[in-house]
Design a protein that fits this description.
The complex is a heterodimer of chains A (335) and B (138). Chain A is built from eleven helices and eight strands. Chain A has 335 residues and is an alpha+beta fold. Chain A folds into two domains: 126 residues, Alpha-Beta Complex (Cathepsin B, Chain A), CATH 3.90.70.10; 150 residues, Four Helix Bundle (Hemerythrin (Met), subunit A), CATH 1.20.120. Chain A has a six-stranded antiparallel beta sheet, with helices on both faces. In chain A, strands 1-2 form a two-stranded antiparallel ribbon. In chain A, helix 7 runs antiparallel to helix 8. A two-stranded antiparallel ribbon of chain B has the order 1-2. With 138 residues, chain B is mainly alpha-helical.
C-alpha cells in the first residue's frame, strides 16, 4: 500500500511537513510562506535554562507553534492524536494509511537511522510524514532529506515513543479540512505583524532584538566569566543553533527574507521586497559572525579581543534588525 | 547570501547522506533554493559538541574498567542519555538508576531489569554485562 505523495525538500522540518501535507490536500504553499504566516521567527536568549550546562539560544518559536498558527490563520482544521500505548499508536497510523491519508508525526532524531550519525542527538520534536507501508517497512518523507526514505516498524516505534524532554508520546496529526480558497493576504499580514511585534515590542530584555543586544553584551564577558574552554563551547552552541538545526542559513533570516520576497510578489507590495533585501543583509552579517566564531572555536584560543569583536558585530546586527523589524511593524500595523 | 556564495565544503559530517537546503538570492535579490553539502564553521561547531560527548564516554569507560562504575554508566554516555531519561526508559526513578551504576548493585539486578537496560541501549544482555568488550573498543 502506497499513497501517491510528492515529497519536496525543505530547510526546516515543521514548515516542510506542513507544506508537503497541504500539497497532498490540494493547497500549494511553499516553505517560506508557511514559516512567515506561522510567525516562526523569534530570537530568545534564556540563560536561566541550560541544556547540558549550556544556556539556551533560540532563533525560533517553540516546536508545534508554526503549524498551529498557520492553520488558525488559513482556516485549516487538523486532527491531532497522542497515545499511551505503542500498539494503538501504530494501529491508528496503519488505519490512516489504509484510508490513503499521509500522517505527520513527532519523532526523536536519535532513532532515525537514515540521518548522518553526527546529527543524531536526542532532539524529540522532529516532524516527519509517513505516507505508506511496504513489506512491513514504513515509507517516510523527512522534509530535511532530498529523497524519501524508509523505517522499520521497530525503529518507528522507538522514534515515536522516545523519552526525555519533550516526550513525543506517539503524537500524530493530519488535516481533515482544507479550505479551497484561503485568504492569504490577511494571513500574511497577521503573520508579519506578530513576528515584527515579538521581535521589537516585547518589553523583556531577553526576547527579540533586545535579546540579541543582551547576548552581545554577555558574550564579551564569557572568557573571563566562565573560562576559555566553556566560552568556546557556548559559542559553538550558538553557531549550531544558528546554522545547524534546519534554519536555511543565518538563524532563519534567509527563510524569512524569502517569505517577504514571496509575500511582496503575492500582494504586489514593493516595500516588502525592500525589507526582504535588508533582512538578507542582516542575515549575511549573522553568517559572518558564525564564520568568525567558527574560526575562534577551531583555534581554541578565546582571547578576550575576539569575543569582544564578536559582541560588537552582534550588537550592530541587533541594532540593524531592530530597524528592519520596526519598519515591518509599522507597515503591518497600518493594515 | 548570493546563490554562488552557498558554501560547499567537502570536509563535513554528512556522510554523503544529506545536502541541506538553503535560501539564497539571485542577482536581483529574489530568493532561490540551493542545496549545500556543508559549511566549515557549522562542521567545527558540531565536531566540538561531539568531542565533549566522546570525552565523557571515554571517562565512563575507564571508570567501568577500573570497577568504579557499572557498564550502565558507559552505555548511558554512549547513547548520549541522562539519568532521568534512562530512568523513564526502563520504568523506574532516577535514584534507582544511580544505584544501578554502582557495580555492587548492578550485579544484583534481576534478569528482567538487565533485559530492560539492554533493550534501551539496543544491545543484548551479554553485551551489557560483559565488560571485556569495552577493553577492545577504543
Amino acid at each position: 500500500m502506497s499513497i501517491a505523495f510528492t515529497h519536496k525538500q525543505s530547510a526546516h522540518c515543521e514548515n516542510g511537513v506542513v507544506s508537503n501535507l497541504l500539497r497532498f490536500h490540494g493547497m500549494e504553499v511553499d516553505e517560506p510562506l508557511v514559516f512567515g504566516i506561522g510567525s516562526g521567527l523569534l530570537f530568545s536568549y534564556l540563560p536561566f535554562i541550560r541544556l547540558n550546562g549550556i544556556p539556551v539560544v533560540s532563533y525560533r518559536i517553540w516546536p508545534g507553534q508554526i503549524f498551529k498558527r498557520f492553520s488558525n490563520r488559513t482556516g485549516i482544521k487538523i486532527e491531532r492524536q497522542k497515545f499511551s500505548s505503542t500498539k494503538t499508536a501504530m494501529d491508528a497510523l496503519d488505519r490512516q494509511l489504509d484510508k490513503g491519508q499521509p500522517v505527520g508525526m513527532l519523532t526523536s532524531v536519535f532513532y532515525l537511522d537514515y540521518l548522518p550519525a553526527a546529527y543524531r542527538f536526542h532532539f524529540n520534536a522532529h516532524n516527519i510524514i509517513v505516507f505508506g507501508k511496504e513489506n512491513g517497512r514504513y515509507q517516510v518523507s523527512d522534509p530535511i532529506m532530498e529523497y524519501t526514505t524508509e523505517l522499520s516498524y521497530e525503529d518507528l516505534v522507538r522514534a515515536r515513543f522516545a523519552k526525555g524532554m519533550p516526550e513525543p508520546s506517539g503524537r500524530m496529526y493530519y488535516p481533515v479540512q482544507v479550505p479551497a480558497h484561503a485568504d492569504f493576504e490577511k494571513a500574511i499580514w497577521t503573520g508579519i505583524k506578530q513576528t515584527s511585534h515579538d521581535m521589537t515590542q516585547i518589553p523583556m530584555p531577553l526576547i527579540g532584538t533586545k535579546g540579541m543586544k543582551y547576548l552581545s553584551k554577555r558574550l564579551r564577558k564569557w572568557p573571563e566569566r566562565i573560562g576559555n574552554r566553556k566560552a568556546i563551547l557556548w559559542l559553538g552552541n550558538m553557531i549550531r543553533m544558528q546554522e545547524e538545526i534546519g534554519t536555511g542559513g543565518a538563524g532563519f533570516r534567509f527563510i524569512y527574507a524569502a517569505f517577504l520576497d514571496q509575500a511582496s510578489a503575492r500582494l504586489k507590495n514593493d516595500a516588502l521586497f525592500e525589507l526582504s533585501k535588508k533582512l538578507t543583509q542582516s542575515g549575511d552579517q549573522l553568517r559572518e559572525i558564525a564564520y568568525y566564531a567558527g574560526r575562534v572555536c577551531k583555534s581554541r584560543t578565546s582571547d578576550i579581543k575576539s569575543f569582544g569583536e564578536l559582541g560588537d558585530m552582534l550588537e550592530r546586527t541587533a541594532a540593524f534588525e531592530h530597524e528592519v523589524f520596526s519598519e515591518l511593524y509599522q507597515l503591518s500595523k497600518s493594515r | 547570501m548570493k546563490e554562488n556564495q552557498v558554501p560547499q565544503d567537502e570536509e563535513n559530517l554528512n556522510e554523503g547522506k544529506l545536502a541541506k537546503l538553503y535560501y539564497a538570492t539571485d542577482d536581483k535579490g529574489h530568493y532561490l533554493k540551493v542545496n549545500s553539502i556543508g559549511w566549515e564553521p557549522e562542521t567545527v561547531a558540531m565536531q566540538q559538541a561531539w568531542e565533549v560527548v566522546n570525552a565523557e564516554v571515554e571517562e565512563a569507560r575507564e571508570k567501568v574498567l577500573s570497577g568504579k562504575a557499572s557498564p550502565i554508566l558507559f552505555y548511558l554516555k554512549k547513547n548520549i542519555m541522562n539519568v532521568p531519561m534512562l530512568a523513564s526508559y526502563v520504568g523506574t526513578i532516577s535514584p534507582m538508576v544511580r544505584l544501578h551504576m554502582i557495580p555492587f548493585f548492578f550485579h544484583r539486578l534481576s534478569d528482567k531489569m538487565k533485559a530492560k537496560y539492554a533493550a534501551t541501549f539496543r544491545i543484548s544482555v551479554e553485551e551489557l554485562t560483559d565488560i571485556t568488550d569495552l577493553k577492545k573498543q577504543s
